[in-house]
Amino acid sequence: MEVKIGVSESSRELVVNSAQSPEEVEALVAEALAGSKDVLQLVDDKGRKYLVQSAKVSYVEIGPADSRKVGFATI
């Protein structure tokens, strides 16, 4: 699944491809935004950790990962 995180005072968003379920990610985000944690921590499908200060999170988009198509095939 793909998680997009908007960070305040940044023009780019952070995109994480995670093996976690949407419910797990939603619970982590809700916990961080509720103020019980100062840092939102996510792990991607390669085992890398992403840490974002909870106060800097503008938005979070949770959705299925887009399959990237390679080649010159016409649709």
UniProtKB/TrEMBL annotation:
InterPro entries the record matches: DUF3107
Pfam families attached to this UniProt entry: DUF3107
Source species, domain of life: Bacteria
Protein name: DUF3107 domain-containing protein
Naturally occurring in which organism (per UniProt): Rhodococcus sovatensis
